[in-house]
From TrEMBL:
Topology in membrane: Peripheral membrane protein
Organism from which the protein derives: Kocuria flava
Name of protein: ABC transporter ATP-binding protein
Predominant localisation class: membrane
Phylogenetic classification of the source organism: Bacteria, Bacillati, Actinomycetota, Actinomycetes, Micrococcales
Subcellular location: Cell membrane
GO MF annotation: an example: ATP binding
Chain segments annotated as coiled-coil in the UniProt record: none
Length: 275
């Protein structure tokens, strides 16, 4: 389905700022897999996501979607296979357009545009039904400017719109990181429901270890451009956040907890305390 084979990426090669972002990463996702990606700062999490999306072209190696080699395909052409939700709630939608206008554009993504109305009665009914499933009251705000929505509402809307085109692969780029805990939990729950309902093949980068264990059927931890280890569905169900940290320390001596950012450590402490 999605195959990443021996991918390398180095930034600022040949300079004093040279940084190896990916060092021979290989990965294969089957149809319907939901992979969560965690790791230390600078581990290569965003780089692997950008390599899949086409934002970055690898120095070597291949990226394939189904039987298509998309390694050197530009981002706008790769969009036919992919949808992405970004960390920033301000991305993925137009703040000056209404909810229904944004949804109409997303609905036509990947389809032949032609000279047809973007908004019809049937489509408004569909949009209301989809929005009602979010349980945020947005089905009653089709005419509201998206810029007036809260961050959580906007991110939930972006998630919904990203799945309209029935993408082969859904990319989630720390899509709850900028939200307050309550809204983050809401969007996280909606993510699990939407992905399961549509059977979407998904790659989610997150700094939240608890979220990474709760969502999806596979998990990888990255460090310094490499995949340190992988957990399958059964292993994920029995793993804990302290267990993940201990696994990291065991495989990467000397790195310890300092390799993780404050938000990740907060999730670890919260899980240990039970609060």
């Amino acid at each position: 389905m999605l195959t990443i084979d021996n991918v390398h990426k180095t930034f600022f090669a040949g300079t004093v700022n040279e940084r190896r972002a990916l060092a021979g990463v290989s990965l294969r996702l089957e149809e319907g897999d939901f992979l969560t990606v965690i790791g230390s700062n600078g581990a290569g999490k965003s780089t692997i996501l950008n390599t899949i999306s086409g934002t970055l072209i690898p120095d070597s190696g291949t990226v394939r979607v189904d039987d298509h080699d998309v390694t050197r395909l530009p981002e706008h052409k790769r969009a036919r296979y992919l949808s992405r939700v970004f960390q920033d709630p301000m991305k993925g939608s137009s703040p000056t357009m209404t909810v229904e206008q944004n949804m109409a554009i997303a609905y036509q993504r990947g389809k032949s545009r032609g000279l047809v109305p973007g908004l019809t009665g049937a489509r408004r009914t569909l949009f209301r039904e989809k929005l009602a499933s979010l349980e945020l009251g947005l089905e009653n705000r089709l005419g509201a400017k998206v810029g007036l929505l809260s961050g959580g509402q906007r991110q939930a809307l972006s998630l919904l719109m990203a799945t309209f085109s029935e993408p082969r692969i859904l990319l989630l780029d720390e899509h709850t990181a900028a939200l307050d805990p309550q809204r983050a939990d809401l969007v996280s729950r909606l993510t699990g429901e939407i992905v399961a309902e549509q059977g979407l093949t998904t790659v989610m980068v997150t700094h939240n270890m608890e979220q990474a264990l709760r969502l999806g059927n596979r998990l990888i931890m990255m460090h310094e451009g490499r995949i340190l280890f992988e957990l399958d569905d059964e292993q994920k169900r029995s793993m804990t956040v302290p267990g993940l940290l201990e696994q990291f320390r065991r495989l990467q001596p000397g790195a310890g907890q300092d390799a993780f950012d404050d938000a990740t450590l907060f999730e670890s402490v919260k899980t240990d305390d039970g609060r």
